[in-house]
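User: Assemble these into one structure.

Assistant: Restating your components, then the assembled model:
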Amino acid sequence: MPIYKAPTRDTRFIVNEVVRVADYTHLAGFENATQDMTDAVIEEAGRFVSEVVAPLNRVGDIEGCTRHPDASVTTPTGFKEAYRQYVEGGWPTLVGPEAFGGQGLPHVIGFVMEEYMCSANHAFAMYPGLANGAISAILSKGSPEQQAKYLPKMVSGEWLGTMNLTEPHCGTDLGLIRTRAEPQADGSYAITGTKIFISAGDHDLTENIIHLVLAKTPGAPESSKGISLFIVPKFLVNDDGSLGAKNAVSVGSIEHKMGIHGNATCVMNYEDAKGWIVGEENKGLAAMFVMMNAARLGVGIQGLGQAEAAYQNSVLYAQERRQGRALTGPAEPDQKADPLFVHPDVRRMLMDAKAFTEGMRAFSGWGGLLVDLSHKAATAEERQEADDLISLLTPVIKGYGTDRGYQTATDMQQIWGGHGYIAESGMEQFVRDARIAMIYEGANGVQAMDLVGRKLPMNGGRAVQAFFKLVDDECASAADSGDAVALVAERLGKANGELKAATMWFLQHDMTDRNALGAGAYAYMTLMGIVSLGLMWLKMAKVAAAALAAGTDDTLFYEAKLVTAKHFALRSIPQAGALRREIEAGGETVMALPVEAFATA
Amino acid sequence: MPIYKAPTRDTRFIVNEVVRVADYTHLAGFENATQDMTDAVIEEAGRFVSEVVAPLNRVGDIEGCTRHPDASVTTPTGFKEAYRQYVEGGWPTLVGPEAFGGQGLPHVIGFVMEEYMCSANHAFAMYPGLANGAISAILSKGSPEQQAKYLPKMVSGEWLGTMNLTEPHCGTDLGLIRTRAEPQADGSYAITGTKIFISAGDHDLTENIIHLVLAKTPGAPESSKGISLFIVPKFLVNDDGSLGAKNAVSVGSIEHKMGIHGNATCVMNYEDAKGWIVGEENKGLAAMFVMMNAARLGVGIQGLGQAEAAYQNSVLYAQERRQGRALTGPAEPDQKADPLFVHPDVRRMLMDAKAFTEGMRAFSGWGGLLVDLSHKAATAEERQEADDLISLLTPVIKGYGTDRGYQTATDMQQIWGGHGYIAESGMEQFVRDARIAMIYEGANGVQAMDLVGRKLPMNGGRAVQAFFKLVDDECASAADSGDAVALVAERLGKANGELKAATMWFLQHDMTDRNALGAGAYAYMTLMGIVSLGLMWLKMAKVAAAALAAGTDDTLFYEAKLVTAKHFALRSIPQAGALRREIEAGGETVMALPVEAFATA
């Protein structure tokens, strides 16, 4: 049975010393984020998640969800009670808008909770996770009446929500959707069609579920410019807020998946279901992107969450399991064998995992801050700057975060040897669950194309130039900060140079060879991920060096930050050069062969 | 339902044009390996495996194996009948020794069958696969009486065999085993103990199973120098070859695993079971390594097999699934969307897969040739040379082959998007099944240590020096072979330079810093894998260039080889430099932190 203990010490380091959320309490919407407040929330969130949510991870995997003959769906044993406690504890309301009953805390804190929830129980975390996307869309594009009708109960967690985009023949290419929305005399629409892969599509956690559904109105253009977004509640909501009739939406089946068994991934059938349009006709894509951008950041954090949970279990196993001897001679001669911890190759994997999880936690924290600053910073210029950066980095957080999350889960399973392949260990579940995050909310290849094709050229490259400058400035101010910091700065500076060169190469080929962009996009996303984590490690190394210089009770913690920063600089950053060369190889060999050349038989 | 068609065209290219098996028919044991013969075997093997074995892959995953109340074990529906046909077709006998009823074909051909079998059905392939290891051990270390008693029926496939090494508290560190062997008056031993993770430990495919079991005799040294190997048949075998009493060995349980569900991974209980020693007391490790080395090559080929099967399904999907438009404008304007094949990032994954599978297939073919030449080459010097190389490369074939096999299966699943995460697609099974190959028969970290700690220094580095020379010679003779070949040679030469530098670095640190070796071992194994596949691609590119120059009916095939060679050179070989830098980072950051620094909470 795998363990999980929320990494609150490291979270507090990031929130208080790296992202320094309390520095922003002068801004509207940050007033509540004093250090006392955030420390208390972090510790209590960690306790709740570790004690209530984590113990249900295995049972969720084993039982999965059940669709009953009447098409109703029940979640695994314990999920309903845990969700009740989650709502009772007020956890859904953390970052919710105060106007609709939320606590209005910064996204940095919301992201902490998302990490903990996913580490503890990815499948469970998705129920409220999907609702957040639906809330964002209604908040951003819904009418005041829709907001008043749905948001209070969604923010409180009394109702949950879903996002219905994918259809059997279309996922990424939403212009192809076939679900129809016929306008009705009463201002509503009749929604008919089949949606697939609908996470949390139905369940027994809440009495109502607010589906957000993409569909086409009659005569709409045949492209993504012809899709509209609709609110389709499972039960209609009367004007007094009470529940009315069951809507004509039902679960056709639950998918059998590689992982996240505890979440009901549903085929949803809409048959003249009653829906209400969110925003204007044919403007559904913009509303969908509001949901999607929030969801993409959340999914990147899932990569972190899975990696952290797997890492904790392998740290324990490496202490308990004894096998072989240290290369330098027996470490514990009175035992028959040394713990796995003595083996450099085991430690390599643990250090790589530590460098990723702690670096990614900082990256998420910074991302959360940017989300808030894009709305709440004091000046329009600062808001624009933050918006530029988070727009640029969202595909990196999603793509790089989930790639490395899966890789880390795989490495941590590897430490367990054969025992990690056995279900009881829980290690293989981490791998299976982590795998989905590379696929959903836009497969990572789509993230890479979003980064290279849309985000780089945006406003003449303003965002990426700002990012380069940020990294260079951080490196420049590191010269006198001590050996480890200087080393990290030097290596990071070089990697930033590779990233700039790759960016320049794309600019030169943008017009002449679109396929070269596509062929290099994935390597570019990985390269920017490495530079981003390098930036985080440089920031953390500086904070750690300063804390050690000033004197601290927690020497080990800060010294470990310096060692881990150096580890990342020496062992992950070198990949930057290889990635640049891969990008500069262009698209020729990628595009050269006709389909028939791929047959092997 | 996934498809599989054996890649016989590519196999024949490797066997006939790259490895050139027919060039060796003058050697004893190669006489049968004329091109007519090997072509026929390859095509017929491909047909049998594709038609009979592949269709059972999904049912094996879904049903798994069953342990009944009487402790008997049955395999999934159809396995027994397929195995009967496999035996009837004479497939177990391919490379078996002629003295015991085998066909005595070269290992190159045996490896082809292993690849096809694993592509088609990894779990099924393991039943005969494990028996091969047991046969090798008896052939190499068994007495003439034991060979006469067991080998004919094992070679024919009438009986299967297993390898019983792991115990609950020890896998890699076999010196720790507790299973006891008490000598009996009749010359046999009474074996008592529990073995775990025993693949094909029991089943209904054959009437008898010959277990090879590691155990300790009374007073044996407490290390790997105190283990002995025993034959423990499921049913005792009378002198006339008929079956006698059931032995005291039983299946305690079948493990629940991440994948390879169709293979019964058993907890085996031996309670005073009757066993006969193979070779001498306390010399079990040497006998075990005979099994193990054969098994490790086979497992490396499993990495190839899984990658090939996943690749074929994604090549098909990329043609059928339509989503989005080519970056250069609609490729099929009369359709609503273009096939996935137009997208450079999809093609990147397919080309990477193609470069790995075809390169790895050549590497396996060359490995098979080396195995044979190590026994059958004309001179002692040539035999030693082949033995040096295959000893050096076995951990690379196993470690790099299975790492990249898993990575390729994951990439191929990615092409399917959300549909690849659903069980029905079969894509997620490839990933789950491929995962085990990185773990069993020595986890890949153990392979890396075997390579760096044992194989590099062996005989003063003779083997690795021979490998360097082989690569350099191949590069040197490429200068006038045309653009693509020259490019591959140039890049490969550089990568070989990185490998030499890393090797030199290890030699310099061997005595002073053992942990630096351990910390860099994995990167070194990967680096040598890249150089090995680069070597294969250079060889193949030369053959292809020559064929095109000479004129051929199959222009597309050979042109694709040149493009794919170039793809590997431009997109995989650049990692060599980063891996060298990772190695030269040494062990400092890996070993610096105390255990407590790994706690995050």
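The longest strand of chain B covers residues 265-278.
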